[in-house]
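@channel anyone free to eyeball this complex?
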Amino acid sequence: MQAETATQGTPPAAAPAPPREGATRLRAALGRWEALLIGLIAITLIAGSALSEEFLTADSFTTGSLDLSEVALMALALTLVIVAAEIDLSVASMLALSSALMADLWNRGLPLELIMPICLVAGALCGAFNGFLVTRLGLPSLAVTIGTFALFRGLAYVVIGDESVTDFPATWTDRGFGNFAGTFIPNTIVLFAILAVAFAVVLHATPFGRSIYAIGANQEAAYFAGLRVKRIKLILFTLSGIVAALAGIVISLRNSTAAANVGQGFELTAITAVLLGGVSIFGGRGTILGVILALFLLGAIQKAILLSESISSYWIQIVTGALLVGSVLGPNLARRVSEMRRRHAHQHPLEEGQ
Amino acid sequence: MSAPAAAAEGARARRLTEWVYRVRELGIVVALAVLIAVTAAIEPRFIETDSLRNLALNASIFAILAVGQTLVIVTRNVDLSVGSVLCLSAYLAGDLLSGNQDLPLPVVFALGIALGAACGLFNGLLVTWGQVPALVVTLGTLYMFRGLAFLWTDGRQVNAETLPDAFLNLGSDSILGVPILVLFALVVLLVTGQWLRDYRAGRELYAIGSNPEGARLAGVRSERRVLTAFVLAGALAGLGGVLFTARFGTVDATAGFGYELTVIAAAVVGGVAIFGGTGSVYGAALGALLLGTITSSLIVLRVEAFWQQAAIGALLLVAIAFDRLVGLRVDAALRRRSARRAG
Amino acid sequence: MSARRSALRALLAALALVAALAFAACGETQEDQGSSSSSSSSESSGEADPNAEIPKGLKTVSIPKQLGNPYEEFEHSGIDEALEELGGSNRISGPTEASASSQISIINAAVQQKPDAIIIAGNDPGAVAPALKQAAQRDVVVVGMDSDVAPDARSVFVNQVTTQLVGENQVESIGKQIDYKGEIAILSATANATNQNAWIKVMEETLKKPKYKDMKLVKTAYGDDDDQKSFQETQGLIQAYPNLKGIISPTTVGVAAAARYLSTSPQKGKIKLTGLGFPNQMRKFVKNGTVDEFQLWVPKDVGYLAGQAAAALVAGRITGKEGEKFTAGRLGEYTIGANGEIVLGPLTTFNAGNIDDFDF
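replying in thread with the prediction:
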């Protein structure tokens, strides 16, 4: 697995054989983010059902997943961007621009069937703009997308100002709010599932996906291996824009409200989900499955705290932050401990030998 | 190339980069001057003493935060938790003073700064000792510190009415026509600027940022330096928090919400490279002043409020694109010089 | 390369398809949820019985716009008071940021806990409506308070004071301070705030009356209920409009920030300021001559009335129809007005003479 070889701070290969095997096992166990996340989800589910009888219900799943729909969609495309060792902080602003555009075009009397493709195209253009600045001008994506974070949100206000549009036809808003085919699964989550499969296939089972990992692991090497690094990154940023615009359409329909102020702060939640999902901020590592599990974990924690009568909702932020830090810190510390133990084991026989 | 020649070459290269810094800062000063001139041409009251004083006042807290952010960014790290740290210190100062009006102000400042430094230490330890990337750590603590602020304040708010006048006057009074807040910002700026320039520890921050491996090989104790940078950034956010309370008088759990991106934007507009190694605190402070002035002048020019954010975003993009072009030119110039030397 | 291309093409195709496909396919199977948009539940069901018993152990959840906002804490403490008085209990559950999306999560979780009633101050009238309608479908009474939600998503709305009265009182308050002459400006909260915009509209209409013909509203600025932004906006207003005579700031954050700016500026006492403010926040500025008078209702009573209304609705004493009457504990009798609106009462004016009688 390419993903595993790019691990940060790999211990030196000179270590003797037996302890190394132990360390590898440990690392294999802890390095499996998915296993770690499943463990955390299990803990949350147990704690949550202890906190409230209402926690383990279809209702919780429906409303909890509905709440995270847009963040979840954006996290998918963001995963690809971050695996390629870039970042996109402007996703929530592109979402807002898409929503604002939807409001404006609706006010001008266009039908939704025409508005939605226009919004997606606008999202693609925004994303391509990010990608252009990053790849053609060689600017760092962190700085570029802080700039477009302000620019796109600002443009959203320019488009629609302080108005909001709430008179979308019920057939469409019900699609955004309702469940799929009589089940308890919201339509938005079905949409997410389809996209998740598409993104997982692209990232994990195609040459294009492998080249994203290669670029993230070592851009220079990828370039010299003949990959069209700039082009691939441009595509990823464009995808991120399209998906953010799609999320903008979803949130407008789901809330029956399109405005410029929607989704403030979603970019940080989406990035949190991606990083918690085990995607390395330095690129080259991470899976879509991990991100899906992380989203589920975040949703479960949020729901558990909201349903409990005794825990204030302030704790959502504290727990989310601690998890984000802890999920990277934990494995790092475990590695340190095992390294230290190895060093000890290494030194002892020497001392006795003399 | 002999050793002295290499040293001379190094010195020249440094002079060139310093010259570029000066030009870069000059660029912001010119942009500021043009902005103020244009605004003043349309609305002359914009350059009355009172108005200019307000511009400086509005920017001073952001300037202090941007200085702290610069220390972290030059080491190729970032601190997203500034807004939350500011809130904790601001509420601490307000809470202490409302409880006891006679508390000596230096004690309040010391405690506020200490709380900020403690938050910075927490960030720094996770980054250095825990080896967690700074973006991840400070994104996490952005949430954690804010959540703690909500828990701590529990819906309470500190009001100007409960604060001693001596403290509030720090936020509004002037000495010889210069607002006290601006003096705070200037002192922070000059001291930090000198430290970065003339002290080994300060210069090593740049070395770590421009080439972490090289710095380590050259014997720089990177972890300790990075830790220092985080602690200082936290302390400055703490100072910013205490000053926030003095200036605004009203503090609740939402103080400083969303400041992080504005502060980073100020540093980047001021020429601090997001990937470390270059940029000066003077530039960052000027960046903060420029962003604040844009906001004020758009209000005065009666431009729809909706354009403000878009304008700031566009400015940021222009600034980094400009830096990139200048950076390419300087690299080329340096390369030409060494090529000449070698020939 | 070609394999990558085709994978990419597949992805783009999937993206394009998905939007159309998923939405279109789901659209047909909407009947179970779709009904939410048509019927609004408890309003129309049954007749009111003024003598119905209020059940013991009533449970309500109250949802502020944002936690940590002192004004809302005051307001919601009134709901606690009302419920305790009636032998029930209230739980306050709110978001940490004032956005509609985070309020929706809170509403959904609250509904799952099956309370008797939800009392909400809405961040956005439309966006929270679908979630509230679902609550009504599950026999949870929904009471709007402070900032209204879509009328078909709640049974009654408890208004601090009528929109009309706020607008008129505020204009009169600034008018009499500036001798009904000169330029005035409004410093509002966020541009989307329902109540703010309704008040501003009335103010604009009031200003058309002959009495106010010499007054001119030159600008409405938005301080976003953010102290620093409001402060900066005040400063900007005064610079942009040199002839400004007065400012109305119908938000507690805005009026305090504006007063603080004025108190240290040369225009102190020359530019008049009124608005909706807390006595505790404004006392200092009234006493040092920056502000002559400002107005407000008593926030705790708003919550108290909403709590009483919720209990009366659950008991069936009222159903939310216009003209129904009920007794709201210590506040006395109230009548439901048009659109299910219950109005607390007129604005209280605070000045140097009476401000020390109030502590909130």
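from a first look: Chain B touches chain A through 44 residues (CB under 8 Å).
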